[in-house]
Amino acid sequence: MTSPIIQELDQHDTSSLVAVAGHPIHAMLVTFPIALVTATLGCDLFYWWWGDPFWHRAGVWASGFAFWLGILASMAGTAELLLVKGIRKRAASWIHAIAGVTLVSIAGANWGLRLAHPDAVLPLGLLVSVLGMVFVGLAGWHGGKLVFDHGIGLMVSGRD
Ligand code: HEM
């Protein structure tokens, strides 16, 4: 018997449209905000532990790049969501988008906080970084679920 996932793929194709040589651009880009949000938390912990201003400056750069590369990754994800009918019609895709947008907003708030109030890194910035990590986990895990449980973004169909 054909799996229900393959039956759904047959009805509405979920293959990635925003891809280079068959590789979804969103999947390639999300590694950057994931790594940089994690790096921001690392910088805050090192700054807390050692008090070296180097880690304070590194945190400003890490959070800034986490935000802007998160915007870039989200643009690729949003294009995919809006352009591909099989992706657009699944509730799971929209839940993932909400988690992703929340994560990017937290990354932006973290960067803005450091630019506007450099003295607020401890403890507020650290707490925002921890919240960012929680959403990296939620958005990242759920993104994987889209691919592995729902077959979204895979270049296959029931006919393959
Ligand atoms: C507006 C925001 C976002 C939208 C609309 C979105 C949409 C999507 C879509 C449609 C997929 C399926 C694979 C593909 O077609 O590329 C996906 C996968 C994924 N997304 Fe997002 N996404 C967003 C933001 C994010 C962010 C900020 C992260 C960072 C944690 C993220 C992490 C992932 C991961 C890890 C995958 C699985 C990729 C793989 O391993 O193949 N997404 N997303």
UniProtKB/TrEMBL annotation:
The chain crosses the membrane at residues 27-49, 61-84, 91-109, 121-141. The keyword Transmembrane applies. Pfam families: DUF2231. Residues 22-153 form the DUF2231 domain. Keywords: Membrane, Transmembrane, Transmembrane helix. This is DUF2231 domain-containing protein. It comes from Rhodoplanes roseus.
